[in-house]
């Protein structure tokens, strides 16, 4: 086995516990399956991920991106077809599958709800029903994901974003007007949401559950609601986290600590949507690279402020003879509060490079230099 492949396998083979789940620290993200990656390429990536020793696959009912009505849900369908095609080679209980239910106040809401009905063989209605976390919608979302994936139980069922207003996706400020607007919305509340998830667990449709794009307040409320309702607490939080967005390491790291609510961070955006690979600054991006393929998508990841920080991190990686992607991902893996890093890949070669980062240990000197850059460019992904 070549050294690079051996390192990729060593990285993918690392495991961590999320509640009852034993998952690879490298989690394969699939939000480009069905858009940037066709089914054949997706199958190759999934096959290679399992061959390398990974077992944790993350998806969502609204994927792929960019989110469009004509193919929302296709990422789950592709994974389901792959599971069926590999049924003789791969045991279902050896794979950990996570998916996410869409919350309210997003453009995807109405057609995501209609797609759930179609997946379950029900009339789709007029397509104007907004997504929410009502008991009926949570249940329908879970059951539709199970149908698309062709499985009986979701290993990890995640709330993709909160139903209430929170700063997310680059926003840095809590807005009073949005809080006041929430008072006029039919929000379900933590107890209702947790009780519904508890019922899905009791029925064997969900093993564990998690939150995403959450705040310290949301972590505490979700966990306390679980206690009140006799439901197992969330085991994970999937939040944006990278060299350019280190917000998690203050209050959220405390809330989620093993000494407190014991919730594992599943980090997405560790490569800033690919910007922390350096390919956009070095001129290596192609027409199929994310920000060229999805014009206007995730502007926080490649703003002027973010690029200024990325240029310094790239120089640091060059100085130490490593790729910027390896530096960025290895730094994330070095955080004590992190459980898993979601990696994206549009080829098996890219997958192997990303898996290798879980094998890399950064020296104290490199970590100190990273912090020095952070002081000069603190959280440049913040848009306000």
TrEMBL record:
What SUPFAM superfamilies does the entry give? NAD(P)-linked oxidoreductase (SSF51430)
Residue span, NADP-dependent oxidoreductase domain: 25-373
Q: Name one Pfam family in it.
A: Aldo_ket_red
Query: Which InterPro entries does the annotation name?
Result: AKR_Detox_Biosynth (IPR050523), NAD(P)_OxRdtase_dom_sf (IPR036812), NADP_OxRdtase_dom (IPR023210)
Name the record gives this protein: NADP-dependent oxidoreductase domain-containing protein
């Amino acid at each position: 086995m070549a050294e690079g492949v051996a390192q990729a396998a060593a990285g993918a083979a690392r495991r961590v516990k999320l509640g009852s789940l034993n998952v690879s620290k490298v989690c394969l993200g699939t939000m480009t399956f069905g858009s940037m990656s066709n089914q054949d390429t997706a199958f190759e990536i999934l096959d290679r991920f399992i061959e390398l020793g990974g077992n944790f696959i993350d998806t969502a009912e609204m994927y792929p991106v960019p989110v469009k009505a004509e193919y929302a849900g296709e990422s789950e369908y592709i994974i389901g077809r792959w599971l069926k095609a590999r049924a003789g080679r791969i045991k279902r209980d050896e794979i950990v599958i996570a998916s996410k239910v869409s919350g309210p106040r997003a453009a995807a809401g109405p057609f995501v709800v209609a797609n759930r009905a179609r997946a379950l063989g029900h009339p789709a209605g007029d397509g104007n029903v907004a997504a929410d976390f009502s008991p009926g919608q949570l249940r329908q979302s879970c059951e539709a994901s199970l149908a698309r994936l062709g499985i009986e139980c979701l290993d990890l069922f995640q709330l993709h974003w909160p139903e209430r207003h929170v700063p997310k996706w680059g926003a840095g400020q809590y807005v009073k007007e949005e809080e006041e607007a929430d008072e006029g919305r039919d929000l379900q509340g933590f107890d209702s949401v947790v009780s519904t998830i508890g019922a899905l667990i009791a029925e064997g449709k969900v093993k564990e559950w998690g939150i995403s794009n959450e705040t310290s307040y949301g972590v505490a409320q979700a966990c306390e609601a679980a206690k009140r309702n006799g439901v197992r607490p969330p085991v994970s939080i999937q939040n944006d986290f990278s060299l350019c967005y280190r917000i998690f390491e203050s209050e959220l790291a405390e809330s989620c600590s093993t000494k407190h609510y014991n919730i594992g961070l599943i980090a997405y955006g560790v490569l800033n949507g690919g910007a922390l690979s350096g390919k956009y600054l070095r001129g290596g991006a192609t027409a199929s690279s994310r920000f060229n393929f999805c014009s206007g998508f995730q502007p926080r990841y490649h703003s002027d402020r973010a690029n200024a920080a990325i240029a310094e991190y790239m120089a640091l990686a060059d100085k130490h003879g490593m790729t910027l992607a390896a530096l960025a991902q290895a730094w994330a893996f070095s955080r004590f509060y992190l459980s898993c890093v979601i990696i994206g890949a549009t080829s098996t070669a890219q997958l192997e490079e990303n898996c290798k980062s879980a094998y890399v240990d950064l020296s104290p000197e490199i970590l100190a230099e990273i912090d020095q850059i952070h002081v000069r460019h603190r959280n440049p992904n913040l848009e306000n």
